């Protein structure tokens, strides 16, 4: 290469570095996203434009990720069926029925750009249901806890949002992934950045920041089924952080991962100064056991707590909450009575000002509801204000049924969340830990360590 | 600069030399991230539309790739991708404002200026300029695209890239040089 060419190439090199600083690349596809590329597209599918889930309470949005959140999502979804006319009632009823029938194999909840209180969360949750359970049995798991999910996968990217002056943890940037299915349990953490102040306050976080900078994979095989792993890291902006070890009830598959930005202490907790960031990674795995009765009791207790929390968040009575949830559950299991359906439709008719059902070709119908005015409902005003700007869409295709349901415009920056039904084998790709095993990723086999210390083989 | 997990997402495409790289699935997997970026940029950052295109691409590949000579599958995939995008926007009367539109004159000018002057910051802050650069970067073959993105967008050193690729640092320098030239060519050849 001549000197002239060399100079030109050096200039090109410098310019490219500047371009790298100024030009933003699109977000990389998630593992979950990639797993869907080889699924056959729906015939004539148009680009989906929907996402969302209705928040039960501003501060608790992320804490409802998991099985419990589907209940929350379905309460939200019930509000979508504004049906001003008889024809639309028939459509809505059909869509309800289809929704029930659709839940056969697996479902996924995807959330994009959900921003709240200075945090931005993107992620996906996949729940694979037991094969052969059928829609009735699988949906019962939402309420009675009798039947566990076969597997679940979650990935999240949590970052601070807004400018540093407003952000609660400026610069926070971390990724989490968790997979739990029989014989395959792991957690992946990558800490792109944990604010220095947090690290100074919490030495554990400083250690984590170092360990997980290039990725940290925790092998958990067997630990979850033994019920011995339940790690909750509570990090407070000020004050002392605590790390709790608790025993996850066996066979309880409350997949609870979230970031709570709550400036009020949870019930029973001593008030602390300042808002709290809580990273709660817990996954109990399903499986048989001699104490199935106590398992069901524990699961029901957990569900009851979730309903109580939801009721409190919405300013509703517990019994009211149970009725709503039962109606939704019956919708899924096909046991919804005509009266319950009429009630749901009436709720919606009185709540949203703009509803439409649009045929988009190839048998695809999209039901849209927006302009919710829930001021008459027994809800906190901040909840009704939030719901007023949400819109909800459901995509329904003749012959195949409901394909997705979602809520748009949630959070502070038009976040979106989609609930969709997917094939069971979608999990095959995402459950594979090799998707996370890039160069530099540290692997910590907690399962083997646990066996070593416990003396078991 | 993106904050996503790019550093660890340099795909195993770069390690694919040791694998049987002739099967459709292997070629598709090896190029998937580059193809996705190609789609998502041309979808105006609509990830759902990009996902739909990826699904359609895989479907077409599954149905038709058997007739493509083994060494040309990658090139064929990119051709199909281009057609999918073209057909999609052709059927629609207008594109959303955020969808980049190729400006061949501007892109060619950029290609020249990249080697003749330090590009001013104000220039790089213009959307139409950034669009041309994104369009060109995502036109690159997957392996060169990953090198350019890794080195210039994520500041991965020659040493890091060498370890990841399993080659010497000198080899990385050579590959980067060629990738830079390919990028300039992509800008010059950008079609409206």
Write structural notes for this entry.
The complex is a heterodimer of chains A (457) and B (192). With 457 residues, chain A is an alpha+beta fold. Chain A has one domain. Chain A has 13 helices and 16 strands. In chain A, β11 (352-361) and β12 (364-372) form a beta hairpin. In chain A, α5 packs antiparallel against α9 and α8 (292-314) crosses α9 (318-333). Chain A is globular, with a radius of gyration of 23 Å. Chain B has 192 residues and is mostly helical. Chain B has 2 domains: 18-99, no CATH class; 101-192, Arc Repressor Mutant, subunit A. Helix content of chain B is 62%, strand content 0%. The longest helix of chain B is centred in the last third of the chain and has 20 residues, at 169-188. Chain B is globular. The chains are: A alpha+beta (457), B mainly alpha (192). Chains A and B meet through α1 and α2 of A and α1, α2, α6, α7 and α9 of B.
Structural class computed from helices and strand pairing of chain A:
alpha+beta
Which band does the percent of strand residues of chain B land in? under 5%
Taking all Cα atoms into account, the compactness measure Rg of chain B is: 17 Å
- For the secondary structure, the number of strands of chain A is 16
> Rough shape of chain B?
globular
> Counting H and I runs of at least 4 residues, what is the number of helices of chain A?
13
Helix/strand structural class of chain B: mainly alpha
């Amino acid at each position: 290469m001549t000197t002239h060419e060399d100079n030109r190439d050096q200039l090109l090199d410098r310019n490219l570095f500047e371009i790298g600083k100024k030009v933003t690349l699109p977000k990389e596809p998630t593992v979950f996203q990639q797993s869907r590329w080889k699924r056959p597209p729906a015939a004539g599918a148009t680009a989906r434009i929907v996402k969302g889930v209705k928040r039960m309470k501003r501060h608790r949005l992320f804490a409802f990720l998991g099985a419990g959140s589907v209940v929350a999502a379905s309460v939200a979804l019930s509000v979508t069926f504004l049906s001003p006319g008889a024809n639309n009632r028939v459509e809505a009823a059909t869509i309800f029925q289809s929704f029930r029938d659709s839940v056969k194999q697996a479902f996924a909840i995807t959330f994009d750009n959900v921003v709240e209180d200075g945090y931005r969360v993107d992620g996906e949750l996949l729940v694979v249901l037991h094969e052969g359970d059928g829609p009735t049995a699988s949906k019962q798991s939402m309420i009675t806890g009798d039947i566990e999910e076969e597997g679940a996968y979650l990935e999240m990217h949590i970052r601070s949002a807004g400018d540093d002056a407003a952000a609660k943890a400026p610069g926070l940037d971390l990724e989490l992934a968790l997979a739990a299915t029989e014989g395959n349990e792991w957690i992946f953490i990558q800490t792109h950045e944990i604010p220095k102040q947090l690290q100074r306050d919490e030495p554990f976080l400083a250690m984590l920041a170092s360990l997980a900078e290039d990725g940290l994979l925790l092998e958990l095989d067997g630990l979850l089924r033994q019920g011995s792993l339940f790690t909750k890291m509570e990090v407070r902006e000020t004050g002392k952080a605590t790390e709790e070890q608790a025993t996850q009830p066996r066979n309880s598959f409350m997949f609870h991962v979230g970031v709570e930005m709550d400036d009020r202490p949870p019930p029973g907790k001593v008030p602390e100064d300042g808002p709290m960031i809580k990273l709660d990674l817990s996954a109990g795995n399903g499986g048989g056991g001699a104490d199935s009765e106590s398992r069901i009791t524990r699961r029901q207790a957990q569900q009851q707590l979730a309903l109580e929390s939801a009721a409190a968040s919405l300013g509703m009575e517990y019994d009211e909450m149970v009725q709503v949830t039962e109606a939704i559950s019956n919708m899924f299991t096909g046991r919804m009575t005509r009266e319950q359906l009429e009630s749901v439709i009436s709720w919606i008719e009185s709540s949203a000002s703009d509803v439409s059902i649009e045929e988009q070709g190839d048998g695809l119908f999209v039901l849209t509801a927006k302009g919710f005015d829930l001021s008459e409902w027994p809800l906190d005003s901040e909840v009704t204000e939030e719901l007023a700007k949400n819109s909800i869409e459901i995509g329904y295709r003749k012959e195949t049924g409901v394909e997705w349901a979602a809520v748009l415009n949630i959070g502070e920056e038009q976040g979106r969340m989609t609930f969709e039904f997917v094939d069971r084998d979608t999990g095959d790709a995402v459950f594979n830990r090799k998707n996370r095993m890039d160069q530099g990723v540290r692997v910590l086999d907690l399962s083997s360590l646990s066996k070593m210390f416990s003396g078991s083989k | 600069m993106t904050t996503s997990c790019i550093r660890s997402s340099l795909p195993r495409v770069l390690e694919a030399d040791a694998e049987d790289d002739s099967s459709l699935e292997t070629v598709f997997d090896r190029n998937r991230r580059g193809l996705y970026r190609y789609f998502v940029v041309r979808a105006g950052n609509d990830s759902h539309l990009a996902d739909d295109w990826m699904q359609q691409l895989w479907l077409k590949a599954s149905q038709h790739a058997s007739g493509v000579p083994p060494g040309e599958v990658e090139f064929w995939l990119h051709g199909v991708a281009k057609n999918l995008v073209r057909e999609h926007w052709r059927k629609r009367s207008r594109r959303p404002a955020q969808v980049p539109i190729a400006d061949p004159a501007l892109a060619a000018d950029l290609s020249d200026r990249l080697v003749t002057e330090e590009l001013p910051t104000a220039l790089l802050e213009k959307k139409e300029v950034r669009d041309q650069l994104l369009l060109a970067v995502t036109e690159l073959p997957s392996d060169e695209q990953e090198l350019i993105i890794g080195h210039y967008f994520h500041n991965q050193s020659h040493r890091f890239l060498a370890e990841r690729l399993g080659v010497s640092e000198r080899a990385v320098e050579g590959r980067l040089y060629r990738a830079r030239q390919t990028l300039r060519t992509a800008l010059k050849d950008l079609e409206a």
